Amino acid sequence: MAARPRDRRPRRPERDAAATMTLVGHLRELRNRVGIALLFVLVGTAVAFWWYEHGLGDFIRAPYCNLPDDLRYNEADGSCGLLVTNVFGGALIRLKISFIAGIVLSAPCWLYQIWAFITPGLKRNEKRYGVSFVAVSTVLFALGAALAYISLSAGLRLLLGLAGDGVVVALTAEDYIGFVISLLLAFGVSFELPLIAVVLNLVGVLSHAVLSKARRWIYFLTIVFAAFITPTQDPFTMLLMAGPMCVLFELAIQVARVVDKRRAKREAALGLQGLDDDEASPLDAAPSPLDTRPSALDEPARTQR
To answer: What does pTM read for this prediction?
Structure first.
């Protein structure tokens, strides 16, 4: 008995199971991912709660405690402190700081859960852009938050010094922590705005010509935005935010220039340069002739007959 010829047809690559899930399957996976992410945040919060008495609390209070003695509240032993005006104030402040620090500490873990959920539906180039966007946005937010922390002491010294002589400055823990968090978020989020301009340029919504033409308006609106968004409302903090933002916007404009040049070269190679959005492309849309020659894949079927 003759052996059956081996099927030489190329095997299809195995499909990703996550890309063929039903709606219920996606919802179940989303529930599991969210649960795992919350578990990591809970663990990070617990670590930060322990860390609070081993350096984290001193790190948060350092900008206030570095102020001159006449601008801060001093305890009987000469050390600085923040006031708590209710019974649960101290516990709530510690929990609040621990929760925020836990989110930051566990960020790689819960960000991975988000990425693992959305990545099966992305193409290869979209995955590459997604990883780059997350990495750059994380670095920019960290730079903004670090710059805000550095500027805290100077901003507090200027604002509290305006009270003048004869006024005892005693900040509550709630007011001070809220001020610190709002300043860190304001700087971190503001540093993301130039990245949004780069993303809009990459998807073809915002061109380098438009950005370059509006450069003066961008710088002016950046200063106005910094004046409104900074919680301290002092010129030192405003300029400390607006200066780096203007530099980042200039970098975004230069990135857009490089991207538009590369896009123009690709369009010129394909004969698409200078076409309107409503104009038909010069590509040949006629279907190619049908290939009627027998394929090598049909040989096993003929042999079986």
So the answer is: 0.70
